[in-house]
# Entry
Amino acid sequence: MNNMKAIFCKQAKDTMKNKAVLIQFLMFPVISIIMNQTIKVDNLPEGYFIRMFAVMYIGMAPIIAMSSIIAEEREKNTLRVLLMSNVKPGEYLLGTGTYVWIMCMLGAICMGIVGGYRGTDLMNFLILMAVGFIISILLGASIGGFCKNQMVANSMMVPAMLILAFVPMMATFNTTIEKYGQILYSQQIQLFISHINDGKMEMKNYVITGINMVIVLITFVVAYRKNGLDE
Amino acid sequence: MSLILVESVEKKYEDKVVLNKINLEINQGEIFGLLGPSGAGKTTMIRLLTGQISATAGKITVFDKEVGKLNGTEKKQFGIMMDQFGLYERLSCYDNLKLFADIYGIKKEQIIQTLRAVGLEKAVKTPAMNLSKGMRHRLQLARVFMTNPKILFLDEPTSGLDPATSEEIHRLLLHKKEMGYLIFLTTHNMGEAEKLCDHIALLNEGKIVEYGQPQEICRKYNHQKKIRIRLKNGEELEYENSRDSAAKIEQLFQEQSIETIHSTEPNLETVFMERTGRRFE
Ligand SMILES: Nc1ncnc2c1ncn2[C@@H]1O[C@H](COP(=O)(O)OP(=O)(O)OP(=O)(O)O)[C@@H](O)[C@H]1O
Ligand SMILES: [Mg+2]
# Structure
């Protein structure tokens, strides 16, 4: 617990000076809020941009943040010092993951409020975002676990991010993409979000999201079984 | 009490033997120096002793326990400084230490105190990436010193530093030794080893070629026993260090023509040359 808190505080200070990671937390909330407030097109449902960017936020920010933080620590050999100081890999991942999750949740709260969600709707929106962030954090941590440096991590996270963030968006214009995109948790969460008001979700949606979570968890375990945090 | 015991340790990478049948015993309260040219296996030895890698054969005992079986709390008694151990580049000197102070449960006041001890008090708020090479070294040392480890492993703690900074670091190390810590250091610098170390081992191509107290090793290799005299007129003379030379040297004293007089004892550098036929650096 103590170590986890130490890692969390370190990460909070470090990210304040790391623009590449910091911008991930700010970009989507800021852009979506600006677009939501300025672009007024007839027939556009309320909070349209918020919903679109919320899913992109899930598919990008936690993955980039987690994988680049971990890959950098491996590359610069700071992780090795932590592990030699009796910080357990689990404590490190929890400390870092919690930090990334809280930062993302702060963005999500702003988006939810600006997007017009109130009361239980806001609660549900935040729960959906929270679940999405957790899956993405595990995925980002797996990428960080597989990669020895930031270069390799970048080449792995870009495709993951493009698929997770853009397929759900394109699915709204194209039925084929919609059909295949369903297998992604990001698209499922988009569906959940668009049905927050009517609660019209089927068992299938929960199952797919659950399967996504299990797959990511397995990937995560394999990444750390195989490589550990340190080779 | 021997804190570190190394028995016929061997380390291979694939077929390449990096360390060969190493035996060492190091006691509490001593500074031990592992000397050797680049590629001799010094860093590999530190990584073995600290359990970062495991030996191909042989046994390493630290704190009366096999090194692979040390638990996390025991490993926290190590203070390791090596190039391969990074700093958080964007964080200030203070914040770099703060993280480890939190992990080790060390009070805040001690962070500043340690930074002062290594002469970084003016750089408390400077991010690590803006530090000079010598300052980085000192910050790495501060990280080791702050946690009060029982054993310090320092991989070339003064390499690439100016003489004044090296001197300061030597002072800090001698101070730690007085407090009863064991310091295991590696170096390229023979002079440093002669000055600091209670015992040294000369490592060449993975084998220990000489072991002992620095002065003793030098004495052992003192076969030439010559006396070199430089006269005031610039002439250089060399005499056997024997009874026969006494009269001649006395005469030079009588004539008051001697500028300097030296005995030609070998230093570690010449010992290494003689043992391996190879220059040190
Ligand atoms: N992971 C590794 N895989 C293969 N060979 C290695 C590995 N690590 C070290 N070696 C080899 O072991 C030998 C000793 O390396 P080591 O780093 O211990 O030398 P050193 O004495 O510390 O040298 P220097 O003074 O340059 O730091 C070298 O020949 C090196 O190539
Ligand atoms: Mg080395």
User: Anything to note?
Assistant: The first strand of chain B starts at residue 2 and ends at 13. Residues B 13, 18, 36, 38-44 surround adenosine-5'-triphosphate (ligand 1) (CB under 6 Å).
